[in-house]
Amino acid sequence: MVARPPVRIVVDRMKVDDLPAVHEIERDSFTTPWPAHAYQHELENNRLAHYIVARCGDTIAGFAGMWLLVDEAHITTFATGRAWRRQGIGERLLLALLDLSAARGAHEATLEVRPTNIPARRLYEKYGFKNVGVRTRYYSDNNEDALIMTTDALEGRSMRARIAELRAAVAARPDIDLDANGLPVPGSETNRGESSGVRDDTATADAPTGGIIRPSSATRRRL
Known about the structure:
The structure is a single chain. The protein is of the alpha+beta class. The chain has one domain: Gcn5-related N-acetyltransferase (GNAT) (Aminopeptidase), CATH 3.40.630. The chain has helices at about 20-30, 35-45, 90-105, 120-125, 155-170; strands spanning about 10-15, 50-55, 60-70, 70-80, 110-115, 130-135, 145-150. It has a 7-stranded mixed sheet. Residues about 190-223 have low confidence and may be disordered.
């Protein structure tokens, strides 16, 4: 079999037709996945919700979402398909969420993450998130605390400069090499200069179960 040409990941709005692929990644990434109807309800009924996917041709490689709550963007979920991890896709998704947050007038972005998810925390710190508090026994699967991480003002000079620099670095990355099955060649992106400190993903960089929890007002879970 012949390897396929390299591809570039495109971040786009999540559509109802994407949901079978999103559910597959969801089930593979989270210990307590959302039920099948949850994302469709979010897309069709929640005006606060914004969901995106990373497309590789016809393949959904990852997805992410947030709620825009007044002037705060709360990142709610984040995952990459197992075969597509360590390709920089999580970074592309996070950058897209921050761009969307700023465009919609959010003053800051916030999320919760497990203290033990070091790769995720490094990714968030790279994009300007800082520890601002703790939610005690936040995760229902093991009662682990959650760190609350929040950015500085998205409209501030320092954040705008940081995002512009990171956006340029992401845009300069080469396309992803595919094998004969249409899947990424292991390590192809990493070997071409991707930061070893952010090895993308499963919601944040290669954590084994991935994901970011939904806002606490909705349900307690994730990462």
